[in-house]
C-alpha cells in the first residue's frame, strides 16, 4: 500500500459495496474535504493493528432511516431511534469487515472492535498535523453519506 489515498480507496470501495449490497443504492464521490463536519448520526470504530486508525461513517438521520428501511423492509416512519443507531453501527461494522479482508497480510491489517454511534450535527474532527485524514462525501440524489478514515 503506497499512500493514504490508496488506503482510503480500500475503505471507500468497501463502503460503496456494503451500501450497494444492503440497499441497491450506488453512490458516487461528491466531494473530498479533510475538514468537513459530521452529519446528525456518526458511527465509528477504532482500527487496532500495526498501524492504528479510526473509521467514521456519517449521515443525516433521514438518510440512515432510508438505508435501514431497505435493510430491514420496515417503512421509514416505523424505524425507531435505536434502529437508526444500530444501522449506522452496522454500516461501520460491515465496511470495516470488508476492508479488513482486503487489507489482510498488509501493514494496514487490523482487528475489528465494537462500533459505536454518536448523535449530533456539526461535530468536527481535530487531529494532529501529521495525521492522515481521508474524507469523502458520497451520494446518489436520494442519500448522502460521509466517510472519514484517520491514520
Describe it.
The protein is an alpha+beta fold and about 150 residues long. The chain has a single domain (about 5-150), classed as Chemotaxis protein chec (3-Layer(aba) Sandwich). About 35% of the residues lie in helices and about 25% in strands. It is built from three helices and seven strands; from the N terminus they run H-E-E-E-H-H-E-E-E-E. It has helices at about 5-25, 60-70, 80-105; strands spanning about 30, 40-50, 55-60, 110, 115-120, 135-140, 145-150. Strands 1, 2, 3, 4, 5, 6 and 7 form a seven-stranded antiparallel sheet that branches.
Write the layout of secondary structure elements.
Blueprint: H1 4-23, E1 28-31, E2 41-49, E3 53-59, H2 61-72, H3 81-103, E4 110-111, E5 116-119, E6 133-139, E7 144-150
Antiparallel strand pairs: 1-6, 2-3, 2-4, 2-5, 3-7, 6-7
Strand content: 25-35%
The CATH homologous superfamily corresponds to CheC-like
Number of helical segments? 3
Largest sheet: 7 strands, antiparallel
